[in-house]
Structure formats: C-alpha cells, structure tokens
Amino acid sequence: MGADTLSRTFAALADPTRRAILERLVDGDATVNEIAEPFEITLQAVSKHLKVLEAAGLVSKGRDGQHRRCHAEGTSLDPAICWLDENRQQWEDRLDRLGDHLRQIQRSTTHPTRKKDQ
Amino acid sequence: MTADESGLGELIVTRIYEAPRELVWACMTTPDHLTHFWGPPGMSTPIDGIVIELREGGRFETVMVNDATGESYPTTGVYVEIDPPNTLVWAEKGFAEGMTSTSTFTDLGNGRTEVVIHQRNVPAAFRSPEAQQGFNASLDRFTAYLATLV
User: Fold this and answer.
1) Is B11-118 a CATH 3.40.50.2300 domain?
2) How many domains does chain A have?
3) Does A85 fall in a domain?
4) Is there a contact between B135 and A22 if contact means CB atoms under 8 Å apart?
5) Domain spans of chain B?
6) ipTM, two decimals
7) Is A77 helix (H, G, I), strand (E, B) or coil?
8) What is the pLDDT of residues B10-64, one digit of tens each?
9) Residue A106: its chain B contacts at CB < 8 A?
C-alpha cells in the first residue's frame, strides 16, 4: 500500500498552487522561472512547492545545469488511484465477510439453545 | 446515485443481512467481532491491535497484518457520531485525513438489516476542479475513476 508515498502524494496535491504548477507542467516541461511567471509569488516560494512535488514523485528535474527543466511525472498518481480502488474493494470484501461472520455467529448461538430444549 | 457539487469522490457500499440490527451494530463496534471480518483476504486484524473507544471523540484504530509478509497497516480514526444502533460516524486520520465514514443501520423487519457505508471527502486533492479537467493521462484516469464513485 505504501502509506508514506500516499501521504506525500495527497499532501502535495492538497495545495492549490502546487496543483496549478503541476497542471502547467503537464502542458510541457518548464524552468522554474517559466513556472513562476503567472504566479504572484517569489521564485523561492515556487522552488519550495516544486521540492514538495518532487518529494512526492509528481515532478522531476532535468540535469541541464542552470536551465533545468521541470517535468510532470504522468504515472505518479497511479498509487493514489490504486489506493482509492483498493479502498472500495476493501469495503466490498469487508461487508461480504461481515455477512459470513453474521451467519456463523447466528448458527452457533442457535445451536446451544436447541441442545437445551432437548 | 446523483452527486451534488460537493458530492464528488464519495464512496457508497450497501449490503442487506439476515441478522437483527443490534447484532450487526455489535459487529461493527466490538473488537471480538471486528477481528473476524475487518481485514481483506490475506490480511488479519489481530484483536490486540483494535482500539474502539465508543464515544464521540473516542479513538477507532485497527492494524491489518499481511499474513504472508507480516507487514502491518495501521489505520486510525476518531468517532464523530455514535447513535446506537442507527448511525456510526468516524473521521479518518493519517493519509486519508478529512475523509469521514458513515455507517447507517436500517431495520428492514423480519430480522433483516441494511447497512450503508458512505465515505465522504475522499481526499480533497482528487476532487479539485483541476483534477476534474484532467491534466494528463493519469489524471484523466483518476477522473474516470471518480465518475464511477458518484
């Protein structure tokens, strides 16, 4: 399940500026300057957001010296999507098992009563 | 099920049981019962890892253990509403922070009970307008997934 990775993904996406940055990068790779342009925040603030996105694996940075371009990682949301899928499946299974459990305990509680009647 | 604007990302799972409502309620609120059905196949939920403080603000914790690898997955929640044997609501903590799970128990008569699990606020990041527009293949997939939830 990788709870740590998921925490980072969810936390990274919880911030609207970071979602906007990610959205920008999905249109194409960009430098920090290019990313910062439409935002009314400092370069440092953008860098900070990028670090969070990087730590979550949502964004990667190129190795091209000063003009390092940031890149959105297309498959990085898969674990989060997986988790949501698993979450549903888990409840479906759980409630099925609750049904089994209910049948079992009702059988075992009626059994002794019958014995007593004999 | 139709969704209002805030309804995106909800999860609803329903079952009808041939069992009285009090018993179904007991199953969802007692470690002795929970340990038998809580974990998915291949996982167990040891009774000593279950914390149920059945009062508003009380803890609801479980640890699911992978039978094959021994890896454990703790989940933590806090009870928000307890109205036996009708309604049980807890708020998820940890990476699903902000998500609430509501269990509703309806007596259908003749010893039958309907249980509805309703999770709201499936992590907010995935309900953003941006997410719904779908910025890339992954987000498109996510949006398609959300559509199946509502």
Assistant:
1) no
2) 1
3) no
4) yes
5) 11-118
6) 0.74
7) coil
8) 678 899 999 999 999 999 999 999 999 998 778 889 999 999 999 999 999 999 8
9) 18-19, 23
